[in-house]
Amino acid sequence: MKLRIALVGLGTDWDQRYRPALRALSDRFEIRAVYDQVGHKAAQVAREFEAVPSDGFRAVCRREDIDGVMVLSLQWTGILPILAASEAGKSVYCGDPLEISLEEIDQIQRHTEQSGIAFVSELPRRYAPATLRLKELIATRLGQPKLLFCHLRQHLDKPNRRKLPWTNHHLRNSSQVELMQLVDWCRYVVGKEPTSLVSVAHQGGLEAKKPQAGESLEDYRMISLDFSEPEDVQAGKFGSGPVAQISCGRYVPQEWVEAVSFNSPSALQVVCERGIAFVDLPARITWFDQAGRHIESLDDERPVGERLLLWYYRSVMSLVRLGKPAEDARRAIALVQEAERSHQSGERIIF
Q1: Is 189 buried (19+), middle (13-18) or exposed (0-12) by CB count in 10 A?
Q2: Is the pTM of this model over 0.85?
Q3: How far is Cα 111 from Cα 38, in angstroms, rounded to an integer?
């Protein structure tokens, strides 16, 4: 059975992620309508998939010949297409969940729970082949995680908060979104919620530039998530459970192209009870146990884009709700905000 969908806001990942995935899953999805703030782009995609271009997202959401709406990118409309789709009883796939404020996520949750629709938010690191294989190894060979090291090094770019055209709504800069992705990734790998965190940050990536309203000169942020049991935390026994050290830096100048990738560590290192694993996204994992080294390349597995869409398909077709993806995005945003509070106060935040 095909899921009849409408596309709203094609975004920058359309060509690399969504178009190939929808082509590969043409037996599961049928595109009926397309809306984008750039009308010419919407018309091109509509012609390619034999769909109908639309001049407005509300008209798309009200169509009787669609079952779901895929909001691939937040544009000038913000979360309005999500709310319109839920009011019309259409399932929703959200490609930019970490660009949404906590208040907006709460609003979305209220609407989706009232309408009873499926809502899926995109958290791609969870569905990478290497991540899924890591979860299998944790359950079968490596044992529970004890330490996680997750570091991302980026180019130093202008400190910005991208402004949506024709609105006063500012999107988070790329470093903030990546940090939220890393926090969610570690939560998923450990399989439980952190009970405390501590964070530090460094300001000064662009000292010579005076920051504009809403901008930040932060070029490095470290967050330590403690997954110890609540009773241990209350007793002051921090670090008795799994600990994740997450860092995101953008301190390498743009013109130093080779420096960003020089001797870069694995995207994620996990020390477990009976071994250690090194994860390189999207499809490579190297792990060690008493038998020695094991290298696995998972290039033949389904790519992340297809896995995300299959999760959306199952969520819509299932008679039961599969998890709370909106809550996962909300938790990642809230933890990064708590990290800022820890940095400003110089204190550990206990939940």
Answers
A1: buried
A2: yes
A3: 28
